[in-house]
Amino acid sequence: MTWTNVVIQGVLIGGFYALFACGLSLMFGVLKVINLAHGDIAVVAAYVAVFLTPHLHLPEVWAFLVVVPLFGLIGYVVQRTLIQKSIDRDPFTTLLVTFGLSVVIENLLLEIYSANGQVVNIGSLISQSWHPTSIVYISYVSLTVLGVAVLVLALLQLFLSRTGLGRLIRAVADDREAAQLSGANYRHVFGIAAAIAFATVALAGIAYGMMTQFAPTSGGVNLLFAFEAVVIGGIGSLWGTLVGGIALGVAQQIGAHINPQYQILAGNLLFLFVLAVRPQGFFGKKTAFA
Amino acid sequence: MSEALLEVRSVVVHHGQLKAVDDVTFTLNDGEVLAMIGANGAGKSTLLRTIAGLHRATSGTIALNGRDLAKMSPHRRVQLGISLVPEGRRLFSSMTLEENLRVGAYHARKGPFTIDRIYELFDWMPERRRQRAEQLSGGEQQAVAIGRALVANPRILLLDELSLGLAPIVIERIYALVPDIVAYGVSVLIVEQDVAQGVAVADRVHCLLEGRTSLTGVPADLTLEQIDHAYFGAELSPTPPPGAVAP
C-alpha cells in the first residue's frame, strides 16, 4: 500500500512537470529553439503573482487570470524581438541569448526580491487533502495542478489539430520554407508558439509557487526536470510530455522513498536509461506535433 | 510587352560567391505557359525561388503587374498571387492530405480554387484525404503539392522540377493537368530538366545555361539541335546555330 501512495504522489508531481515542460517542447518543436530561460520565466510569473497582482486587489489564487495572458503577450514580444533576432543570426546564438536572459532574470529577481523563499499564498487550501485509505493521501492542490495540466495539454492538442492557426504552427514545425510558400508569415507563427509557451510556463510557475517555496534561482532545477520530461516522453508529442512527466515523477518518488537523497538521482537515471534504450522517447516521432 | 503579368529584368542571384543566375530577363503574360529549361545547375530553380521570395536578387528587378517585389517576403508574394510548388514536393509530412490543402487555403486569395475544386481535379483525393502525406506515392504527393499551391488561388503558378523522381507515365499525367490549370486563368512558369515535357506544354521556352539565357523562343520555331545546343553549351556543336542568343 505504501508503494501505491508513492506512485500516486509521482503521478501528481508528474502532471506539474508536464505543465512546466509543454511550452519547452513547443518552442523546440516549432522554433527549434531551446529556451534556457524557460524555468526563469516561470519563476518571474510566480513573483508577479505574489508581489504585483495584490495591487489589483486580486486574491493570489486567481492571479493566473492576469498573469497568464500577460505572459502570453510578453512571449510574443520577446520572440519577435530578442529571440527572432538571434534565430536570424544562427541557431547557436539562441542558446547564448536565452542563457543570458536566464542569468539576467535570476540576478534581477535577487536584486529586487532578495534570495528569501516565497510562496503563492492560497490560504488553508494548501493543507487540505483527501485520504481514500489510511496510507494514501492526495493533496487537493496537487490534484488540481494535475487536472489543469491534462486540461491544458488537451486544449493545446485540440488547438494544434483542429484550428487553422494550429495547423499553421504544425506546418511551420514540419517545414518552415514550405509553410512560407503556403502564405504563412513564419515569424508571426513563431510569436504565437512562444506566446503559448510563455503562458503555459507562467501557469506552471504559479502552480509551483502554490505547491512549494520558490526563490530567484528555482528556475534551473525545474528546467532540468522539464527537459527530462520532454526527452523521456519524446520531443514533439504533447501526450508524450505528460507521460514523460509522470514517468519522471514516479521515478523520483520511488527514489525518494528508498532514500530521500535519491529523489533526483532516480529521475536522472530514468532519463539516462531512456536516452540509451529509446533515444526518441516513448512517443517520439521524426516530425513534431502530429 | 508593357502588359506583362510578371516581368523579370536583368536579374542576378548569387549563392555565396557563385553567380547562380546571371542577368536573366523575361516576361510572363496572362494565361501563358513558359518553360524554363536547362541542365542541372543552370540556375533555373534559383531563379524560381527568387521569384517566390526565398532568395534575394543581387541586382535586377522582379515586378508583378508593374509592382516591384524586391522587399516582399514569400508569404506576401503568395497573397499577391505568386505560388511556388517547390522541388521535392515538400509536403507537411506529419499532416494528412486534407490538412496540407487546408494550410494552403488558410491565407488564400479569392478565386476559383477551393479544396472541393481540387478534389474534382484529382478525383482520387477525397477517399484518401485522411491519409498522412508521407504515406502517399511520389506522384500523389506531387499532386497534393500542386493542389496546396492552387488553393491559394495564384495568378502565377511556379512549378519546380515536377518530374523529379517520378515514373514517365505519372509525369505525363501531371503535365496533362497544366492546360486545365491555365483554363482557370492561371499563368504557369515551369522549370524542367526534362526538355520534352517542358516543350510539349509550353507556349514559350526559355533556356538557361550556366545562369545565362542561351535561347528563347516558341517551341514550334525551335529545332531539337538549337535546344540541345542551348541546353548543353557550345562544345557540342562547332558553330552557334541561328536563333541562339550569344551568352
Please provide a written account of the structure.
- The complex is a heterodimer of chains A (290) and B (247).
- With 290 residues, chain A is an all-alpha fold.
- Helices cover 73% and strands 1% of the residues of chain A.
- Chain A contains 11 helices and 2 strands, in the order H-H-H-H-E-E-H-H-H-H-H-H-H.
- Chain A has helices at residues 2-31, 38-52, 64-89, 91-113, 140-162, 164-174, 176-181, 186-211, 219-233, 238-258, 263-277; strands at residues 129-130, 138-139.
- The longest helix of chain A has 30 residues, at 2-31.
- Chain A is globular and about 60 Å long.
- The N and C termini of chain A lie far apart (39 Å).
- Chain B has 247 residues and is α/β, with parallel strands linked by helices.
- Chain B is 31% helix and 25% strand.
- Chain B has 9 helices and 10 strands.
- Chain B has helices spanning 44-52, 74-80, 97-106, 115-121, 138-150, 168-175, 178-183, 195-201, 224-232; strands spanning 6-15, 18-28, 33-37, 59-64, 67-68, 82-85, 156-160, 187-192, 204-209, 212-217.
- A 6-stranded mixed beta sheet of chain B has the order 6-7-8-3-9-10, with helices on both faces. A 4-stranded antiparallel beta sheet of chain B has the order 2-1-4-5, with helices on one face.
- In chain B, strand 9 (204-209) and strand 10 (212-217) form a beta hairpin.
- In chain B, helix 3 (97-106) runs parallel beside helix 5 (138-150).
- In chain B, 47% of the residues are buried.
- Chain A binds chain B through residues 164, 167-168, 170-171, 173-175, 177-186, 285-290, and chain B through 52-54, 73-75, 78-79, 83-84, 86, 90-95, 99, 102-104, 106-108, 148-149, 152.
Widest beta sheet: strand line-up of chain A: 1-2
How much strand of chain A? under 5%
Total count of helical runs of at least 4 residues of chain A: 11
Q: Total strand count of chain A, please? A: 2
Radius of gyration based on Cα positions of chain A? 19 Å
The biggest beta sheet of chain A reads: 2 strands, antiparallel
Oligomer: heterodimer
Largest sheet of chain B: 6 strands, mixed
Order of helices and strands of chain B: EEEHEEHEHHHEHHEHEEH
N-to-C series of helices and strands of chain A:
HHHHEEHHHHHHH
* Stretches with pLDDT under 50, minimum 5 residues of chain A: none
Number of distinct helices of chain B: 9
